[in-house]
Specification:
3-stranded mixed β-sheet, 29% helix
Length: 146
Amino acid sequence: MPIRYKLVQRKDFTKGAPADGKRFYAQLVSNGTVSLDELCESIAEETAQTSADVKSIFDRLPRVLRRHLGEGRNVQMGEFGSIRPTLGSQGSLTKKDFNAATMMKKPGMVFTPGKLLQKMRDDATFLRVKDPDEETTGDSESPDEI
């Protein structure tokens, strides 16, 4: 299934662009949200677990991730992917000048999708959704529009 997008006009941030310059950029068109309950039901249908069992696992996952990521460990979650902590700071000219209290940036996390999710991303196609006020003619700009 293609990823749906629309074109929106925003300020042009390209090098050398005029101050009032604008460009069109792709913006994702969401197809809704899957609630945690719906996700748990979907997983329960494909496993021997109940929806409540699946939900209890999701409820515990952030606490377990917090503990392991807080210890500086990478967390591998099979086909889902992995999460690892990241760190950054400002630089100092000497080791003695480095002050962690003022030079450290907020720690982050990086999610790397597993092979199945990477394949979905790599195989993605795109479908442009036209605005209702946009003229529609028999000649479409490109075959990826609706």
